[in-house]
Structures are given as C-alpha cells and as structure tokens.
Amino acid sequence: MCHSWLAAGVAVFLGVLIVREIVPVVRSGEDGAPLEHGLLGQGLRRWFRARIEPLVDLLLNAGVRADAVSAIQLAMSALCGLTYARGWLFTAGWLLLSAGTLDVLDGSMARKRDAAGPRGAFLDSVVDRYGEAAVFLGLAARLRGGWPLWAVLGAAFGAFMVSYTRARAEGVGVECSEGMMQRPERYVLIGGASMFGALGAHLACAPGAAPGLLVAALVAVAVLANVTALQRALTVVRRLG
Amino acid sequence: MQSRLPYGVLGVFLVLLGAGTMLDADWMIRGGALVIGGAALLVLERRQP
Q1: So what's the pLDDT on residue A115?
Q2: Mutation choice for B interface testing from A55, A59, A112, A202 by most B CBs within 10 A
Q3: Which residues in chain B are contacts of A96 at CB distance < 8 A?
Q4: N or C: which end of chain B has fewer CB within 10 A?
C-alpha cells in the first residue's frame, strides 16, 4: 500500500533535521580531514557524539552498564535483519542507524566511566560482527532472487575484511584504523539508502522501486569496503617493512 | 553530571520508528502513537533551557 502524504511528511521532517543539524556542521569546514579518516569526516563524528552525550549521562546515572547497551545493540541488529528480510526497508534502515548509535553509545559510556578495557573492547567487537552478520543475512534473504545478492555478499565480505585487517594489524603490533568506508559510513550509507529509497517509492507510489537505492548503496559498500581493507593491508605491509 | 535530558535523540528515534511502522507495516494506530510520543519529546527538548 502506498502512503504518499505520510511519506511527504516524513521527507519534510528529515529535510528539516538535515538542514538544521547537519548542513551547519558540514559548512563549518570542520570536515577538512582527509578521506582516509572516513567519508563522514571528523566534524560530523564530533557533532554526533555531542548529540548523544545527554543519553550517555542519563544511562550512566541510571546505573546502566555498557555491556547491557551492547546486548540491546545486538538485539536491535537482529530485529533490523528480520525487518530487512520482511521488506520493511524504512524501518530496517532506521533500526540499522539506531544500532549504529548504540555501538557508539556503549564505547562512550565505558570511556566516561573509565571502564574501557580489553574485555569491553573484545566483547564490543564480537557484538559488532554478529550484529553486522544479522543485518547482511536479512538483506540476503530479501535480495536473494537476483544479482543484488552478489552486492550483499560483496558488501558483507568487505565489511568483515575491514575489521579483520585492523584486528590482525593490532595482533602484529601495528595500529591501523584508517579507511574511507568504516563501520559508521557503512551504517549511514546502507541505512540512509534504505530509508530514502522507501520514501521515494511511497512518494511515487511505486513499491517495486524501493530497493533500487539500497542496492546501489550495497554496490558502493561492496567496492569501497574492499578498497578500504586492501588499503589497510598495504599500509600494514609497508609499516612492517 | 547530567546537564540536559536526551529528549531530542529519543524523540527523533520514536518519530521515525513510528513513521516506519506506518509506512512499511500499515500499523497506523501503533505507529501513530509512537510518532505522537516522539513529537511530545521533541516539544520537551525545545522547552529545555
């Protein structure tokens, strides 16, 4: 069923949010950092952390532990995968962005409580991988009928390789966190494309067109995440001489 | 320690989650309730000093 007026209202709401919140950050010129630090840039990352700061304080004051937030993140990622599998693209995209927010939130909570350590970092990494796997499985279930499945597989492989190269680099004593398509960029690209693709399909009353933008984003992630993983691999090889 | 309450973040979360369930699942009552709850939180955010 098509909800053109509702979609128009949501598009206006999102447009106001973007113009009021994100455009000033981008215009302030704080995003002059090179792309190796991620497509989103440092300015947007700082803005996002400042925005969720009150939530960090509220949860810490309520005695919530970072591990509990990680568990909720995992549940939300699983729900996101289920909604993708069901074809609820707007909801799935928003759940993906929300799960990404929780991913930043648990780290911020641990740091603020001075509880950041190897145990939390390890658990966070495991939760992140299972969360991403749930999302990609849902996407694969939805897009299994044609070539877009290859885009999902390519994006999933790239996403895991970006994390794997960093983990192995740290294992051999090299710090390597650069790359233009890191986890926040993947969340924003896939989640945003899901939401705007679904909105466009509702506005045009063309439900079949909803996955188009999502598939384009998955192709972009498949290419750029693998480029990022290879960049990291080359950097580590150079540093190790 | 706590300076502001996170009405804005929670409000945006609820509004878009509600809108999503209305758009995707045709859950007009449940989705509408989430949107109204989120909008109320956004109003509270505006009223915060």
Answers
A1: 72
A2: A55
A3: none
A4: C
What per-residue confidence (pLDDT) applies to A34? 58
**Nearest CB neighbour to A10, from listed B4, B6, B19:** B19
Residues of B in contact with A9 (CB under 8 A): 19
Residue the block writes with tokens 């294992």 = A171
Averaged pLDDT, B31-46: 96
Looking up tokens 């994100």 gives A22
- Taking CA atoms, A170 is separated from A20, A61, A167, A230, A241, in Å, by 39, 34, 5, 16, 16
One-letter amino acid for residue A31 of the chain: D
**Rg of chain A's alpha carbons, rounded to an integer?**
18
ipTM above 0.95, yes or no: no
User: What sections of B1-49 are H helices per DSSP?
Assistant: 7-25, 28-47
Q: A165-213, pLDDT tens digit by residue?
A: 999 999 999 988 888 888 899 999 999 999 999 999 999 998 888 799 9
CA distance A106 to chain B (A): 16
Tokens in use for A156? 């999933």
Q: Which of A3, A17, A48, A90 should we substitute to test contact with B (largest number of B Cβ atoms within 10 Å)?
A: A90
CA distances from A172 to A116, A123, A126, A240 (A): 22, 20, 19, 9
CA distance B25 to chain A (A): 7
Contacts (Cβ under 8 Å, ≥6 apart) of B11? B38, B39, B40, B41, B42, B44, B45
With beta carbons less than 8 A apart as the criterion, state whether A181 and A225 touch. yes
